[in-house]
Amino acid sequence: WYQRRVREAVVSTQSTGHYYITNNLRLMGDADLCPANPPQDFESLFAETELLKKNCVIQSIADVNIGSTKWEVRQELQDKYRALLLTNLEMSIKNGIEMDLWRYTCYNFISKMHQHMTQYKSIAGLHKIFLHASTGFFSQLLQELCETYRKKIKAMPSARYLGVIQETVDHRMVEEHFKYICHFCLVKLGDIGRYNNDSNCAKAFYHQALQVKPLNGQPYNQLACLSATHNKDDIETLYLHVRSIAASFPFPAGQA
Questions:
Q1: Which among 144, 153, 56 has a CA at the least distance from the CA of 108?
Q2: For residues 232 and 220, is the Cβ–Cβ distance under 8 A?
Q3: In this predicted model, what pLDDT tens digit does every residue of 106-136 receive, in sequence order?
Q4: Three-state SS letters, 34-60
Q5: What is the C-alpha separation between 107 and 192, in angstroms, rounded?
Q6: Integer Cα distance of 216 and 228 in angstroms
Q7: Does 221 have pLDDT greater than 90?
Q8: What is the DSSP string of the chain?
Q9: Which tens digit of pLDDT belongs to each residue from 169-213?
Q10: I want to staple 38 with a disulfide (CB 3.0 to 4.6 A). Which of 1, 58, 87, 191 is the partner?
C-alpha cells in the first residue's frame, strides 16, 4: 500500500510539479496521543528501529541507489518510524523519533546524492525522484496523523499547497504535541521544496508552519536560508535571521 502511494506521489509531482492534500478531514473527538487500537507495542517497535538505525549509515554513493541494502533498510525504517508516530505520539517525541525519521531516512540520503550530483549524471534524476517521494511521504504522514489522533487539516480551497491546522479551544499538552509534529512536518516539506529548487513551494510550507506555531523561530531561519540562496536579498536575509533569533522560541541555528 505505501509503495503504491509513493508511486502516486511521484507521478503527481512529476506531472504538476507539486504534491498536496486536497480533501478536508473532519474527524470528531478529543485529541488522543495513544490510539485505541495501536498496530504494535511501542517498546518492541522502538527496539526494532534502534537495530535498523545502525544498519542505515551511508558510507558510499552506492548505498543510495534504489535496490541497495541501505535503500531497503531505509524503507523499512521509515515504515517503522511512521508506525511509532501513529502508535504513541507523546513517547515518539520524547524519544526523538521525528528527528531520526528525517535524519536517517531522508536527509542523509539527500545530502549524499547532492554531494555526487555533478560526478554522476544518474544521481541527479534519482535525487529528483527521491525529493518528490519524500514530499509525498510527509504529506501522507500529516494526513494519517490527523486521522489517527482525530484532529483536522483543512485544505484551503484556493491554495495550491497543504492547508494549515485549524485552531481549537483546547490548549492541553496533547494539543502542543500535535501542533509540534505538524509544525515539524511542514518545515521538512519546506526544506524538501528548497532542496528541489522550488522556492514558492518551500515558502508556502514555511509560512504554514508559522501559522501552526507562530512563536517558533525555525521557519524564519529557513526562510532566511531560502532568501540567501534564491532571492540574493541581503537585507531580507538579515531581517529573517533576526526574526528567528528574536522569536519567543528562537531557532539555535539562527544564532550562528
A1: 56
A2: no
A3: 999 999 998 888 788 889 889 999 999 999 9
A4: CCCCCCCCHHHHHHHHHHHHHCCCCCC
A5: 9
A6: 20
A7: yes
A8: -HHHHHHHHHHHHHHHS-----SPP---S---SS-SS-SS-HHHHHHHHHHHHHT----SGGGGSTTSHHHHHHHHHHHHHHHHHHH-HHHHHHTTHHHHHHIIIIIHHHHHHHHHTTT-HHHHHHHHHHHHHHHHHHHHHHHHHHHHTT--B---TT-SSPPPBPP-S--SHHHHHHHHHHHHHHHHHHHHHHHTT-HHHHHHHHHHHHHHSTTBSHHHHHHHHHIIIII--HHHHHHHHHHHHHSSB--GGGG-
A9: 343 556 788 889 999 999 999 999 999 999 999 999 999 999 999
A10: 87
195, amino acid identity: Y
Q: Residue with C-alpha cell 532566511? A: 224
